Amino acid sequence: MGLLAGRVAVVTGAAQGIGFAIAETFVREGARVVVGDLNPGEVQEKLGSEVTRAVKCDVTRAEDVQALLDTALTEFGALDVMVNNAGITRDATMRKMSEDDFDQVIAVHLKGTWHGTRTASAHMRESGGGSIVNISSLSGKVGMPGQTNYSAAKAGIIGLTKAAAKETARYGIRVNAIQPGLIRSPMTTAMPQHVWDQKMNEIPMSRAGEPEEVAKVALFLASDLSSYMTGTTLEVTGGRFM
């Protein structure tokens, strides 16, 4: 019996990277998982079509998020866990960043997380509770040059998480967040070598994290292991900027 045996989870932005690692970990721990992504690709086949559904979803659209959660309810009969992970980057210095690049990042990260938290909590309130896990970033704690849009969105997710946790705790709903640091992925390994080396020098553990290491923390927050935790933010950073 896994930590999520018999439970149903929804994970956005789960076709690759951290989101895929979370979905894969949840399936391994006994959950049935609905994956939402703009390009779901073959994720359903990779995770197992008997326990997974993949749905095309734009998290900036309330109707898409509602359809994603409706899939969990119609296909698997429940919604116990919601992970708001979908994200994009449009990095540029503030002087060079376009208004559209700012708006897109805020919409996907912050508004998308609001849609997911709002829609999932509405159902969980009626069903007796659940766990919502929001993926923020270390950039939301310290602010990163070239990321006024991303840092603002990720900081906003922390405030949203705390406010939502206070509103929903009485209904048995827990809302927590994770702030990953430098996690090895196609996006981060494509950095120029000097940028990678600078970031590595800031990490006391002297290595980048792996997507699975974030997924394990998401599993902890999704499961009963964290039953007395809400409104918290857990850093998965190797000690960077502690």
From TrEMBL:
GO terms for molecular function: 3-oxoacyl-[acyl-carrier-protein] reductase (NADPH) activity. Keywords: Oxidoreductase. PROSITE patterns: ADH_SHORT. Residues 7-186 form the Ketoreductase domain. Its EC number is 1.1.1.100. InterPro entries: KR_dom (IPR057326), NAD(P)-bd_dom_sf (IPR036291), Sc_DH/Rdtase_CS (IPR020904), SDR_fam (IPR002347). Pfam families: adh_short_C2. NCBIfam families: PRK05653.1-3, PRK07231.1, PRK12826.1-2. Belongs to the short-chain dehydrogenases/reductases (SDR) family. This is 3-oxoacyl-ACP reductase FabG. It comes from Nocardia vinacea.
